[in-house]
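Possible regression after last week's pipeline update?

I re-ran a chain I had predicted before the update to compare outputs. Posting the input and the new output here so someone can diff against the archived version. Not blocking, just want to make sure nothing changed silently.
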Amino acid sequence: QLQLVESGGGLVQPGGSLRLSCAASGFTWNDYAIGWFRQAPGKEREGVSCISSAGVTHYSDSVKGRFIISRDNAKNTVYLQMNSLKSEDTAVYYCAATTTSSDYFRSPRSPRVYKLWGQGTQVTVSS
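New output (post-update):
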């Protein structure tokens, strides 16, 4: 069974840090690009960051310099280290997987490119 499971969300104060994890099972992990997305109430789903099977990374302007994506292929896990968190980072965070097709290379952070999704984990940044 193909599956992605996110963990690591929670409540954190502004300026704090969290590390999200995305664990995969049921498919050949090394062949897939993994993306992190977030969706706040009333807003569209936003592509935050992604990492290709070769380890090439992309970030949205809103998180560049604060978030770091990495992957551990031995553990079938992708991480999103989130630093200097702001209230506007509050959202449900999802990870998703896709093959590194031409669609991926054209729009690596577009949700339309991704086929397999996790259930999401809530991140709340508040004092």
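Follow-up from reviewer: compared with the archived run. The longest helix spans residues 102-106. Marking as no regression found.
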